[in-house]
Write a structure and sequence with these properties.
single chain; 2 domains
Length: 94
């Protein structure tokens, strides 16, 4: 019974890992122009909600959003331009 649980857990982990790899591959292949045309609000919704619920813009101050933006840029593999648009949106929506 324990072996079956471990096999099921490993299978589930591998399936989720494969889906994540495919998702990241297709997201990184998006045309640059399409990203350049998107607003900070669009980029925030598309990128931040992939991994977690997004907090309200009023949850943090402008300086905190700057720090969070730097941290999340490395975790979510977004560009500096995308990060700046998202942070500007969050700071302006308070």
């Amino acid at each position: 019974m324990k072996i079956m649980k471990k096999i099921n857990m490993i299978t589930a982990f591998l399936a989720v890992s494969c889906l994540l790899i495919v998702s990241l591959t297709f997201n990184s292949c998006a045309p640059t122009k399409a990203v350049a045309d998107k607003s900070g609000a669009q980029l925030w919704a598309e990128n931040c909600q992939r991994c977690h619920n997004t907090p309200a813009p009023s949850s943090f101050g402008p300086e905190q959003w700057e720090t969070i933006g730097m941290h999340m840029q490395t975790r979510s593999l977004i560009t500096e331009k995308e990060r700046d648009k998202i942070v500007d949106f969050l700071k302006g929506s308070r």
